[in-house]
Write a sequence for this structure.
């Protein structure tokens, strides 16, 4: 069964999530996994794509968007569609993005900022997944790093 990890930023800004994503993505890709990042809309896709191109001059984070050529070849694919074009085994859902079927993924990472609205929506998703028997874990950001809480 798919493992689901909740990652909650201590900040109430989506920018904080973006800043914490590169280290998480580097770790996942270094373990030979492919990643699909599910965004809420095309604007978020473009914003995250731009951020990943510009975030680190020393390390390139290999990625692309679903609208670009060779999307299926990308180790990290950013999209707002419910299609696993690059046959990822890890799904990252940003800012409460809901994906209808994630049974083909080994792991789902549900990552969102720490506003009360986002946390409440996250609690509802947690309850739903728990009632369906999923293995759940919870991480928070501390000093720029993710720490497992449960």
């Amino acid at each position: 069964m798919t493992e689901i990890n909740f990652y909650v930023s201590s900040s109430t800004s989506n920018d904080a999530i973006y800043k914490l994503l590169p280290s998480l993505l580097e770790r996942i890709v270094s373990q030979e996994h492919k990643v699909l990042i599910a965004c809420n809309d095309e604007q978020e896709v473009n914003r995250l794509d731009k951020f990943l191109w510009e975030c680190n001059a020393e390390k390139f984070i290999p990625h692309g968007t679903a609208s670009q050529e060779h999307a299926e070849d990308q180790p990290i694919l950013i999209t707002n569609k419910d299609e696993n074009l690059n046959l990822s085994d890890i799904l990252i859902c940003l800012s409460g993005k809901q994906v209808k079927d994630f049974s083909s993924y080994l792991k789902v990472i549900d990552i969102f900022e720490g506003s009360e609205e986002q946390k409440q929506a996250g609690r509802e998703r947690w309850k739903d997944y728990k009632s369906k028997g999923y293995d759940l874990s919870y991480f928070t950001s501390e000093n720029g790093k993710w720490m497992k809480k449960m």
Remarks:
- The chain is about 30% helix and 25% strand.
